[in-house]
Amino acid sequence: MPEGDTVFHTAANLREALVGKTLTRCDIRVPRYATVDLTGHTVDEVISRGKHLFIRVGPASIHSHLKMDGAWRVAPKGRPMRNAYKIRVVLEAGDIQAVGIDLGILEVLDREHDEDAVAHLGPDLLGDDWDPEVASANLSKDPDRPIAQALLDQRNLAGVGNVYANELCFVFGRLPTSPVSSLTDPLRVANRARDMLWANRSRWNRTTTGNRRGGQELWVYGRGGEACRRCGTPIRRAESSEEDRVTYWCPSCQR
Description:
Elements: H1 4-18, E1 25-28, E2 43-49, E3 52-57, E4 60-65, E5 71-76, E6 87-93, E7 96-101, E8 105-110, H2 132-140, H3 147-152, H4 162-171, H5 186-199, E9 236-239, E10 246-249
Antiparallel strand pairs: 1-6, 2-3, 3-4, 4-8, 5-7, 6-7, 9-10
Helix pairs in contact: 2-5
């Protein structure tokens, strides 16, 4: 599931593949931008901001958001791609192709003002603007709000998705539905969120337990009905109508 660490890693891969190279193909398969052709322009930057990604090329910025199922793939030019009907953009430079698949957001912005699209975000957990004090204050602004909702609100801190929201609630022994006011130290929560994403920023298979062996990576997320790693109680699972989110928790370790 794409979260801030996934987008950061994706940006690093695209940066290595494209920056400094001239586009030889630009095929954007979104009706509004289908006539945009950046062929002949040089890719100057690829940056991530929370869960958003910007490819700055010539006068434009290709802005994407992976949402739930999106991905960027880098491969040798000409290699066939699976699920071709889901491809939203193809960029080629030299012998490399970068393909955006099933992207939740894809738009072409004026490069000079592209960050207007993310001006609403809180401090980026993996960005130069990271400030735990600000993130903590943002989380605490609405003390009655459920912790998981507050963590997922990108206006508070940018980069936490459903996996990390569930894992952080477990680590701090609180139900996802518990109010923010039940946290004794919101600053510690903000710092732990940063630690988790930072540790996973350069790999696809994230871990929050510190154990990278298959099936041992996470505390509760995706483990409904399985035994809690701390106490053995079966992990519970509940679905929410809000963006089809699923919540996991241990009824014994989390109060």
